[in-house]
Description:
single chain, 6-stranded parallel beta sheet
Amino acid sequence: xxxxxxxxxxxxxxxxxxxxxxxxxxxxxxxxxxxxxxxxxxxxxxxxxxxxxxxxxxxxxxxxxxxxxxxxxxxxxxxxxxxxxxxxxxxxxxxxxxxxxxxxxxxxxxxxxxxxxxxxxxxxxxxxxxxxxxxxxxxxxxxxxxxxxxxxxxxxxxxxxxxxxxxxxxxxxxxxxxxxxxxxxxxxxxxxxxxxxxxxxxxxxxxxxxxxxxxxxxxxxxxxxxxxxxxxxxxxxxxxxxxxxxxxxxxxxxxxxxxxxxxxxxxxxxxxxxxxxxxxxxxxxxxxxxxxxxxxxxxxxxxxxxxxxxxxxxxxxxxxxxxxxxxxxxxxxxxxxxxxxxxxxxxxxxxxxxxxxxxxxxxxxxxxxxxxxxxxxxxxxx
Length: 382
């Protein structure tokens, strides 16, 4: 982004980036911008909070970093940028531009040229086959869609641009608790002072994930503890094999399971969750990067973007995020420019919902690889 600014020299620039990266942009711009433009750096939330300010300005250039955040065509922030803001040129940057379909890509491209998506319904009707519920189920006319993408974008995998260290992945099979099969079969889990009814597939999936991790919360907010083999396997890892690392979780209750294991093994650690206040979270992350803590326990959505954690080469997924974008972002906290060691990724998986999510993430990885092959640009040629 800074290279573009130095070459094109737009005068009035807006940089839109995740909050965690705002200070990094400000610092880098101060160091490396070779001319004197007017540059405003803000986060996605500010577009909504200060809509009147941003829509009243005229920008020569707008740079959107992590543009996959705007993959929802009907989202409020995307709609404001697409319909109300006055921008001459727009550039989108994303390390993970789509989650599960090309429509995610096109929703981003529509930000700077509405001809790609005159309306959501027109786009879906042209490029997807619909089921009986008018939901897109299969892509059609892929050649035309690919040519449209090639007009305004180029893609490359990280390994094509940067020399990264090797990636080692280890799937650790964990035993599921007996309550897992009971709930899956009957959709009910009844105990003294505990009553759970899973009346939808989505609720059942979440509760099965909870049981795999050693707990379950019923319809009244009461918690049931179950024997989790994941805790045992995690203890084996941190007591024998791993010097330091990141432990990714999904649920608040996961932290309650992990912390006692770290304490029992006299390992220093810090915690960052969605409930951690920002000053505390920032300090904990800096402490981990400085080597003051051996482990950082962090919820996937709280530590997926803007963090450079190359001080460790070990990542443990106590619980996998279901989103491919979140998953890839988590992986790239350690396997990135500056890392000198091979990166190790450990997956604690119970048979069932855990292995199913792992399979879905691998399928999405395959989708990404196919899409990049379609319109990838050789860096030597570009």
